[in-house]
Write a structure and sequence with these properties.
Length: 124
């Protein structure tokens, strides 16, 4: 998804599935705990329906609406965790599996020279 979009501007936008069928309206946006990047959107699927979580990556904004690259039926069958609460890592894992998305581990952090940080400068 376009990462330059403010997540507050996603709320209230309409969302469509891969075929252009309307799913509903974005109620909430969930940010990644570590990076603060928008990761999930909760979409109200109808007047008396529940919210369905959809991944914002690989979704995209097209003509002011969120285009989700999955079928409406799959989206409506997503695990229901309720809105307004934090998604746990286990819940996110269930959502990734539901959508068949790769959940490979993030790249390792770069090595740091902790000796220098502790005041033990290396001599070349």
């Amino acid at each position: 998804m376009q990462t330059d979009i403010d997540p507050r501007h996603l709320i209230g936008r309409k969302a469509f599935d891969r075929n252009g069928t309307r799913i509903g309206t974005i109620d909430e946006v969930y940010l990644d705990d570590a990076t603060g990047v928008p990761e999930w959107a909760a979409i109200r699927t109808g007047l008396f329906s529940r919210d369905a979580f959809v991944p914002l990556e690989p979704s995209e904004i097209v003509d002011g609406a969120l285009q989700v690259p999955f079928e409406r039926a799959l989206i409506k069958e997503a695990p229901d965790f309720g809105v307004g609460r934090h998604l746990s890592p286990e819940q996110e894992l269930q959502l990734y599996h539901h959508y068949g998305l790769d959940i490979s581990a993030p790249p390792p952090l770069p090595d740091r020279d902790f000796g220098r940080l502790a005041g033990h400068d290396k001599q070349a």
